[in-house]
Structure formats: structure tokens, C-alpha cells
Write a structure and sequence with these properties.
The structure holds two protein chains of two kinds. Chain A is mainly α. Chain A has one domain: MetI-like (MetI-like fold). Helix content of chain A is 70%, strand content 3%. Chain A has a two-stranded antiparallel sheet. By secondary structure, chain B is mainly alpha-helical. Chain B has two domains: 70 residues, no CATH class; 170 residues, MetI-like fold (Orthogonal Bundle), CATH 1.10.3720. Chain B contains 13 helices and one strand. In chain B, helix 6 packs across helix 8. Chain B is globular, with a radius of gyration of 25 Å. The N terminus of chain B is likely disordered. Classes of the chains: A mainly alpha, B mainly alpha. The interface between A and B is large, with 106 and 103 residues.
Chain lengths: 311, 285
Amino acid sequence: MSGGALLAESLAEKAPQSLKTTGPGRRKLTPYLLLLPGLLWLAVFFVAPTISLAQNSLQQGNLIDGFQFTFHIANYTAALSSYWPQFLRSFVYAGLATIFCIMIGYPLAYTIAFRAGRWKNAMLVLVIAPFFTSFLIRTLAWQTILADNSIVVSIMRSLHITNLLAVVGLTQSTRVLNTPLAVVAGLTYNFLPFMTLPLYAALDRMDPRLIEAGQDLYCSPWTAFRKITWPLSLPGVVAGTLLTFIPAAGDYINSRLLGVPNQAMIGEVIDLKYFSELDYPTASALSFTLLIAILILVSLYVRRAGTEELV
Amino acid sequence: MAVQTPTQSTKIARVGSARPGGPIRWIRAHIVPLGAGAALLYMFLPIFVVVAFSFNRPNGRYNDKWVRFSTNAWQHPCAVSGMCSGLKLSLTIGLIATVVSVILGTLVAFALGRYRFRGRSATNLLIFMPMATPEVVMGSSLLALFVMLRVQSGTMTILIAHIMFCLSFVVVTVKARIAALDPRLEQAAMDLYANERVTFWKITFPLVLPGIVAAALLAFSLSFDDFIITYFNSGATVTFPIFVWGAANHGTPPQINVVGATMFLVSLVVVIVGQVSSSRRRKKA
């Protein structure tokens, strides 16, 4: 497992100074006893399934004759050569959604952190309030908003925005629903608070006097942002990117409800292999590849920030 | 995207009022809050649609075109077969998953927040991994395990899965609260001859409780709303999200919007009541 090796390599003990160092005797066991039930649950229902997924991905056979573990690495090459477009599409859509989330979430987080005053808590509630409704119901609402005869789409059509975006392949010239733009918009929408909240946390920790100091030294607002605000908000940007990109890459609700089947994301393929084609080895191979890809991403983050910041 | 800083924008605003520079100057000075306003509008647009269409009386099976106003769906929320039983099941699973994951997660959070021990980094990583794994991978790998062990999918497997993915979020939330605690409060209690047990229950636990409550709310909403992992491990069991998924494929009754609107209102009330009561307590103290 290359991702795991990367992770293990970059692990470093980095505990806060104020922690109790466990003494002799019974007390030395206390943290382990506290950890035991929770970690046991994760070991049995998270680690073991992941291992069995890896094992399944190397099996050969079919549902009737049974599956055999034959270290059939061809599952991976076959799966990747047939489904690389779906993988690529998942990562491109998730990447676009992440960028849009930063563009929308940054001004929002900035306003809450520096301008909201006593409305800070109220605005934070507003940021998460739309997400009290079910994910699926919200996505169905986007179907209505982006339908061919809706107000939003007619405005976009009359301003020729749809034509413009059709040139880069994001929409069709008259439609928005069932195009890549609709899927990306849905992903952006559904994962926006996962970007906004870490950004807010990072910006809120920042001392606003730093910007004032920069301006006293005659830097323009744009320079102040580029040299002070942005670098200091980077931990939030990185955390938000992980929290947005990972679930977006694996999501298939948005692409199923707002996109078209021939432009599926990888999650849809895995679902199809499991439930319609009953091709467990290929499904497992696809699943495991997705996991490895994500692990590599996370390990890059861990290498930068250590494990203490993760949880 | 030009980002203004607080001081700069007030400066510009003041100059603007003395020498009216037209709407463009005003927009430039307020570009960031305007962007935030637009973002909020974007976030609430689907909510307006959900609430509005709960009062619709659709012609066909799909509730996607406005026909005419009706309170029919609100009067007969359970008229759609299968929806209310799914709702009840989702609420039950949500409650049980919340209780179990909050207990297990709080214990882990105390271990991580209060003790230094060998294997700390590995524990952090193990807690983080479920949050960093795409749902489709977790759902399919659990299914792979259950298939291998020949466990029949159903309510039990859904519960196991939900407790698993709620656990990490509970740990993160409670641990943050423990880390923010002032250790001097406990030292003060010990100085006043409270033993460890009394200190824990009289000082530490009440201070951590808001974090535990927040974790419980988070766990419940995660469990209640989960679709992908549940779908992989549900067998023939139909939770509310699975019902909605089915409805998306063969007809969406306005009753779904009624549930959506109710969820929104109920959670909003819970959060507002919580906010108000905690700010009142702070004022009293």
C-alpha cells in the first residue's frame, strides 16, 4: 500500500506539552482503556473492511461459481483502462467544485470573521442552516432551479451565458440541467460549508492589526491580501480543500441527479458494478484505487501539518 | 476579486460620503460583503424552492413545475406509502447511532485530549481516516466484509456503519472542547480538596458537556442524512434518504418537500434556542 507507506513515513509524535505523562501502575492503562471500545469498533468495521476490499480486488471468478483469491492484478489494469475517463472526470469535477467553493466561501468567511461584529454567530448559523435539509432533497431542488424552463436558466440564456459556457463544454447552448456545469454547481453547493467553516476558523484566529500594519506601510489592499491574509489563511484553505475535494470526488448523487449517464463519475461506476453487474472484483479494484488516490493526497497534507491538526 | 480590509473600506466609505463618487465606488468599497451576500443567496435558493414546492399541487408524478397553491401535502404528510415508515426508521437509527457513537467517541476524545501515550499519532490517524475516505469506498468495503461473513444486510448493518462514520466526528468535536479547557479550573478544584472523581464530575464534565451536545447533534444529522453508505448496506431496508432516492427515479411527491421544510425549521429552532440560552448563561456568569 504505497499511500500507507507514505503516511507512516511522515508520522511524527507531536503532542501538546500540557498533557499528562502517564505514571506507573494502573494509571498507565487509563488512556488505553478509554481508547479500547472506540478503536475496536473502527478496527472491526473500518480497517477490516478495507483489508477485505483489497483482498476482493485481487479475486477472480463470478457470483455463481464463487470468487477465488488469485492475486489477479489484471483487475486493476482492466478497470483502469476501461474507466480512466470516469476517474479523470471525478477529479476534474471535484477540483472545479473545490475552486468554486474557495471563490464563494472566502468572501463569506472573511465577512463573518472581520465584518460581522455582533452578528457573527447569527451569520455562522446562516452558513450551516441550508444544510439542515437532507442532501438529496437539496439536490432535487437544484433539478427544479436548473430545469429548462426555469427563471435562472432563461436569464442565463438571454445573457448568452449558456452559449459562452457551451464553448468550453460546461453546458449545452440551451440547457444547463444534465450538463457538467449542473453537476459542478451541485457539488459546489453541497460541500460549500466544509470549505467556509475551516476558512472562517483560520481567518478568525488572525490578528486584523497585521493588515493595518501592512497598510500603514503603504501596501495596497490587494498586496495586503496577497502577502498577509492569504498566507495566514492557508491552513484553512488546505483543510477546506481536503474536506471538499475528497467527498466530492467520491460523490455520485449529484452526477446521477443533475448529470447524464454517459458522463458518469467514478462512484456511479462502482455502484453499477456492485449492484447491477455483480462484478465484485472490478468494483473493489475501482474502490481501492480511489482510496489510494485520496490517501496520497492526505499524506501530502500530513507531511506538511502533522497528525495533531487532523483531529 | 479585490479583497478590502476593514480599515481600508471604512476609509473609502468615509471619503465616498463626503465626495459622492457614484455607485461604482460604493460597490468597490463593499465588494467583499456583497460577495458574501451573494453567497448566502446562492445557499438559500434551494431552501426557498423546497419550501415553496411543499405548497404545490403537481399535475404529474414529479413535483418540478409550479401548478397551484395547496396545503394538501402539509395536511396529509403520510399519504405517500413508505415515506413515514422510512422517516421513523431513520429517526430510530439516528438516535441509537448517536448514543453509541457519542459514548465511544467521548472516551477516545478524553484519552487523546488528556493523556500522552505511545501510539498517539497512529490513533489520530485512525480517527481521521474514516473522514478522509470517500463514502462510496467505505460503503462498498463494509458490504464486502458483510458479504464475506455472510451477514444479511438490514437495520443492524446500517447501524454498525453509522456508528462507525459518526465516531470520528464525535472525537474531533469533543476533543476540540477538551483542548480549549482551562487546566487551572481543575487545579483550583484540587487545591480545594476535591478528589479526582469529584473534580471530574463537578468541573471537567460540565465544561465539556456543550462539546458533547454539539457532537451528538452532528452525529444525528450525519446519520439521518446519510445515503451512499446506507444504500450499500441496507439490503431491502428503506430509510428516508433511500425513499427519496427511489422517489427521484419514479415520482417526487410534495410530501418530501414537507419533510425537508420541517427538518430545516426544527433544526433552525434548536440552534437558535441553544445560541440564545448559552449567551444568556454567559451574561449571568
